[in-house]
Amino acid sequence: MSALRLVGWAVLAVLAAAWLAAVEVFWLPLRVGPVPVPLSLLVAAVGNLLLPAWVHRHSGSRVVALLPVLVWVVVAIGASVRRPEGDLLITGQTTAAQLVGLGFLLVGVLAGSFSVGRVLSRPVPRPAPVPAGSGSGGAR
Fold this sequence. Notes:
Elements: H1 3-27, E1 31-32, E2 35-36, H2 39-59, H3 62-79, H4 95-121
Antiparallel strand pairs: 1-2
């Protein structure tokens, strides 16, 4: 695969992971009445399981397959740190919000590490050996 295509897959992986992580963070406070709906946990698990495997299958690069999980962690941790303006996306105002936020981080990291482990544990395909000689069986 050419370097330009590899860079293209890397950019696509980074953008997809950043968008997915941002959407998951914004879904964290989702509620139906007083009951929190942990949709972010499900999407974090599915996204972090499928995205690295999909990127690896299409790009063929293990390094590019690591990028979605790294970007997801950076966005998720960045959302849990208070900014100078006072903005905080992953809050812990109530016990339910604390559990959903902690579960989101835990499920996302575990799913991502499992997926990256599966990608890294696959054997590297070896090129087929080039036969020596003319291939007719006779020595010359």
